[in-house]
Design goal:
Elements lengths: L2 H7 L7 H11 L11 H16 L9 H8 L3 H7 L3 H12 L11 H21 L1 H12 L1 H29 L8 H18 L9 H13 L2
Length: 221
């Protein structure tokens, strides 16, 4: 079971946390500094954090002491793995999301479709998972925490997109006279609009292909 599968299958529970913790550790991008991690201990701590949130604790109310007690470990055990609560919460969110992976480099179209399809699935997971929606909403309200999430999770996703576009520019597949960040926004903007700004909009299968094909017509050489 992947983190995404767990979020969709058990949106109000924490059954995905153990598999999600492993996926997050291996695939979700760079984590914040700490010691090499034991998967079993990671999972127990992340499950405990999710359980407390599911029971009604807000991010502001959570404490390392309370999380450690719920997980049945010492406070020092948590601090040896995460520098603080913010770092832990970033991995908690990663455990609920489909892990990001590098694009395959097959073609600019295929790579862009893969990236946008991941965005579509994250949008579906957020809509179906009350727990994920709660965590992300509370994180967004905490400016410092959201900035850390952007720096350690969202930035890595953006870089995957930039690498695909730079390769396509070098290969002559798309125009090289536009800023790569602007081109990336042209592709991701429509999906972000539907998943974040207009959450009642449909996210049907094939949406990623439609967006990519439409935008590619305007940026091809």
């Amino acid at each position: 079971m992947t983190a995404r599968d767990g979020a969709l299958a058990a949106p109000d529970g924490v059954t995905a946390a153990r598999d999600g913790a492993l996926a997050a550790r291996d695939c979700a991008g760079p984590r914040l500094p700490g010691r090499p991690r034991s998967a079993a201990v990671d999972a127990a701590i992340i499950e405990a954090t999710l359980r407390l949130i599911e029971e009604g604790a807000t991010i502001g109310e959570l404490s390392i002491e309370g999380i450690a007690r719920e997980a049945g470990v010492g406070k020092a055990t948590v601090y040896r793995r995460w520098s603080g609560k913010d770092a832990l919460l970033i991995d908690v969110v990663r455990s609920l999301e489909e892990p990001s992976r590098p694009a395959l480099g097959i073609s600019v179209r295929d790579d862009l479709v893969t990236i946008l399809e991941r965005m579509r699935r994250r949008g579906l997971a957020k809509r179906s998972s009350a727990l994920l929606r709660t965590v992300l909403t509370q994180m967004h309200a905490n400016r410092k925490l959201w900035r850390a999430y952007e720096d350690h999770v969202i930035a890595a996703r953006r870089e995957v997109m930039y690498e695909v576009l730079r390769r396509a520019m070098a290969n002559g597949e798309i125009r090289d006279d536009l800023d790569v960040e602007l081109i990336a926004d042209l592709f991701t903007g429509p999906m972000l609009s539907r998943t974040i700004l207009h959450e009642r909009k449909a996210l049907p299968e094939g949406l990623a292909e439609t967006i990519v094909d439409t935008v590619l017509e305007g940026v091809r050489t």
